Amino acid sequence: MNLQKNRIEEIKANGYQLDFASVFNLAFENYKKIALYAGSMILVFFFIIFALIATFTIAFIGIAALKTMANPESLETQMATESFKLIYTGFEILFSCLISPLLAGLIKMAYCAERDEEFHVSSIFEYYKAPYFKELFIAVLLISSVTSGLMLALDYAGVVLLGSLINLAVSFFTLLTIPLIIFADLKAVDAISSSFTIILKQPLVILGLVFVAGMASMVGFIGCCIGIFFTIPFMYSMYYALYSEIVGFDKENEFQKVENSQY
């Protein structure tokens, strides 16, 4: 068992101390180093995804049918059907699973930034490889399926607000899942359960940090909204800072990885 896994077990048993200012400063300093590069990558990725979705939609549905579906009255009718909600939820879950390695790449960029290591385009797509892709996919699939299933059930029962609150709560308590997979080499289920346990030890401090990071990320909507692509990375820099300050890293293993990469 590596030192990070030992540290996680120690946290589960004894808890930990977390300083708001230290975490925020680390997140902000790393964000300044990755903001431009990460933002540019997200912007390019967004336009590629948008172009692919538009192309496949036109190819399979046709422009005429798409215009009919885009009619406000027709669209409202379609969105109210149970079949549309199920299909939309399915695509939303699949999309979340497929972009999870990209989000992991943003967190890895923050890791590199703290160590003043150079990062490239390949850095952000690093976790589309085995064994990380499978664990990230499974973790996000489990989390998204549970939250989406609950939201659909509560929506059907007419309690929409409760479903949204549960979704936010689950997202909050599982925010360390991705760092635990890519840094501590935990399996999907172990990462989810460990994230819950770790967050529960200091929920108020972490909630404050996540709230501030979220507000800072939303600043990008000011103006022409393109700025959001360059402020979103702050949230993932915060996720990295939280993991770094809570769990930390095995310095000896990091040194060995650097040495091995040189040969």
What does this structure look like?
- There is one protein chain.
- By secondary structure, the protein is mostly helical.
- The chain has one domain (3-248).
- The protein contains 14 helices and no strands.
- Helix 7 packs antiparallel against helix 9.
- The longest helix has 42 residues, at 20-61.
Distance between the termini: 26 Å
Main sheet characteristics: none
The number of domains is 1
* Low-pLDDT sequence parts: 255-263
The count of helical stretches stands at 14
Query: Structural class given helices, strands, pairing?
Result: mainly alpha
User: In what range is the share of β-strand residues?
Assistant: under 5%
The beta-strand count equals 0
N-to-C series of helices and strands: HHHHHHHHHHHHHH
Q: Shape from CA axes? A: globular
Rg measurement, Å: 20 Å
> What is the helix fraction of residues, given as a range?
over 70%
Mean pLDDT: 86
Query: What oligomeric arrangement do these chains adopt?
Result: single chain
Keywords: Membrane, Transmembrane, Transmembrane helix
Transmembrane segments: 42-66, 86-111, 132-154, 160-183, 204-232
